[in-house]
Amino acid sequence: MTGPRRILTVFGTRPEAIKLFPLVHALRADDRFVSRVCVSGQHRGMLDQVLEISGVVPDHDLDLMQPDQSLDELTARLLTGLGRVMDAEQPDWVVVQGDTATAMAGAMAAYYRKIPVCHVEAGLRSGNIYQPWPEEVNRKIIGNIAALHCAPTETAQAALLAENVDPGIVHVTGNTVIDALQWITARIEKEPRLAAGLADLEKRFAHKRIIGVTCHRRENFGEGMQAIADAIRRLAARPEVAVIFPVHLNPNVRKVMDEQLAGVEDVAMIEPLDYPHFARLIGISDLMLTDSGGVQEEAPALGKPVLVMRDTTERPEGVEAGTAMLVGTNADRIVAEANRLLDDHDAYLAMARAHNPFGDGHSAARICDLLCQHS
Ligand code: UD1
Ligand code: UDP
After folding, report:
1. Smallest CA separation from ligand 2 atom 17, residue
2. What is the pLDDT of residue 337?
3. Which is nearest to 230 in space by CA: 251, 204, 250, 256?
4. Which range marks the domain in which residue 144 is found?
5. Is the dihedral of CA 117, 123, 124, 126 positive or negative?
6. For a substitution probing ligand 2, which of 295, 310, 315, 358 has the most ligand atoms within 8 Å of its CB?
7. What are the tens digits of pLDDT across the range 31-85?
8. Does 209 share its domain with 168?
9. Which NCBIfam families does the record cross-reference, listed alphabetically (predicted)?
10. Ligand 1 mean position to 334 CA, how many Å?
11. pLDDT tens, 15-28?
12. CA distance 67 to 45
């Protein structure tokens, strides 16, 4: 190919933005590329938090979030909106990340135009199409379309090869989340005020052991969310424990948590944190309780034990390394495993080792090189 490659990077939610800003930075700084960015606005507030801290200014913003959006309506809006942007931009590559509706629709819209797709964080599989739902199928669809699969780990690479994907287009790049975490950590070191907003809570809970919590999975709506709330209440009843819980903006999460946890002593339910403050929260927490994908990667990288409130994970590396444990969404089990870590110092230390199976912080650079090699 002569001349710079036109790369259209497409994303719409908080975790995609976090995992793609390092690549957007790298593309922008590299004269082998013309970098264009389209955000769907699948998330609004939580996406904007990441755009602001990372300095990414989108060339297109579809602004298509609606309150409590359904999967089919969201997907329909995404397909038509993203297709129009691709027609206008005529990119050489479309880059998508992970497994959201935006990523899946972005890959589909590119495929309909025969534009090659680069899939960042390719090859994650839980083996169960309903856990996580609908993400497992989203990433399988993207896996069928991609012309370049950037697998974060060898396990992810092996999953793609087992599905008979051409080995020549599958590469282990590491996960760009580690690039993002290193970038934000360096920024906080230079400008501590970026993560200083938790100071009041840190003072209030100075003599407590902190459990950091996040949850938002669709398959946990209803019973699962109730059980998670119950577990949080029981853990916070321990006199030496406090819970800091930035609550996801999905109304199906907020409603349950507001009903179950408002006013509970030593449970601080707060608004979603921007990325520097969330990195700080992991740092001050004794352990993380989460159903998030990204937090399962970040907590081990920062040496914090993470109890994963799911029955399966497509990120077995943290569990294999001993820094993550699957605890499901049964309240008794969540409480029992958290209590074990709080009471048994050796069990705690065994999990609290900084370990990083997910990347070395150079994934974005590798992906840039691959985009050139495969053009
Ligand atoms: C989405 C992704 C999920 C990802 C998660 C990360 C899909 C199908 N789901 O789930 O894979 O793990 O993001 O957080 O792609 N909302 C706001 N403001 C925001 C964000 C969400 O108000 O900034 C509310 C809106 O009412 C919105 C609802 O949350 O309709 C659901 O958002 P949606 O993106 O459809 O699903 P998530 O559960 O956030
Ligand atoms: N995160 C954040 N603020 C918060 C909670 C999470 O910045 O209040 C970050 C977190 O560091 C991780 C990402 O959001 O990088 C995870 O997003 P989420 O849990 O919404 O989605 P998932 O990773 O499960 O797709």
Report:
1. 15
2. 97
3. 256
4. 5-175+359-373
5. positive
6. 295
7. 999 999 999 999 999 999 999 999 999 999 999 999 999 999 999 999 999 999 9
8. no
9. wecB
10. 24
11. 999 999 999 999 99
12. 12
> Tokens representing 88?
């206008």
State yes or no: is 121 an active-site residue. Answer: yes
Residue with tokens 């497509």: 314
Tell me what pLDDT residue 146 has.
98
CA pair distance 370, 363, nearest whole angstrom: 11
Q: How far is CA 21 from CA 9, 121, 176, 341, in A?
A: 10, 14, 9, 34
Residues 158 and 251 occupy one common structural domain: no
Mark whether 226 and 141 lie in a shared domain.
Answer: no
Dist. CA 358–CA 242, nearest whole Å: 29
| List of the chain residues with pLDDT < 50 | none
Cα–Cα dist 248/256, whole Å: 11
- Tell me the two tokens of residue 114: 């025969």
Q: Which residue is catalytic, options 16, 30, 135, 274? A: 135
Report the alpha-carbon distance of residue 87 to residue 89 in Å, rounded. Answer: 6
**pLDDT at residue number 355:** 75
Tokens 């999460």 correspond to what residue?
Answer: 253
- For residues 341 and 348, the answer to whether their CB atoms sit within 8 Å is yes
Do 91 and 132 fall into the same domain? yes
Other CB atoms within 10 A of residue 79 CB: 17
The token pair that represents 29 in the structure block: 């700084």
SS3 state of residue 30: coil
Task: Please tell me whether residues 147 and 211 are part of one structural domain.
Answer: no
Atom 29 in ligand 1: residue holding the nearest Cα: 250
Q: Among the options 16, 30, 89, 99, which is catalytic?
A: 99
Q: How far apart are CA 112 and CA 93, in angstroms?
A: 13
Looking at the structure, tell me whether residues 209 and 274 fall in a common domain.
Answer: yes
Q: What is the pTM of this model?
A: 0.98
pLDDT of residue 356: 81
The H-assigned helical ranges of the chain are 14-28, 45-54, 71-89, 101-112, 135-145, 154-162, 176-190, 199-204, 223-236, 251-261, 275-284, 293-301, 316-321, 331-343, 345-351, 363-373
Q: What is the model's pLDDT at position 264? A: 97
